[in-house]
Specification:
By secondary structure, this protein is mainly alpha-helical. It has one domain. It has 3 helices and no strands. The two termini are 12 Å apart. The model has no long low-confidence stretch (mean pLDDT 93).
Length: 94
């Protein structure tokens, strides 16, 4: 009974990380198209917080992936890896 509960907690935490990746993507688009300004304290602190959460997960992926110029595919790779791990954990639970 304890193991399925722990697996559900892990899956829940993984879904939170997936949401943070999406927030980072949307925020980066808003910043790059000058919809929001980094001189705004709230935007700057949100950007720093999101990057502080995701950089430990994205930096190893960035080191492995080839340089693609201006486009960073590491968040997409992280989302794919999280989904694969979620599928494996879900199958192990049953």
């Amino acid at each position: 009974m304890l193991i399925p509960t722990l697996l559900e907690i892990v899956l829940y935490l993984m879904s939170i990380v997936q949401m943070v990746v999406i927030v980072q993507f949307v925020l980066s688009l808003l910043i790059s198209f000058n919809v929001v300004n980094m001189h705004n304290n709230f935007v700057a602190s949100l950007w720093r917080a999101v990057n502080a959460i995701l950089d430990p997960l994205l930096n190893p992926i960035r080191r492995i992936m080839p340089d693609t110029g201006m486009i960073d595919f590491s968040p997409m790779v992280l989302l794919i890896l999280l989904r694969i791990v979620a599928i494996v954990i879900g199958n192990l639970a049953y």
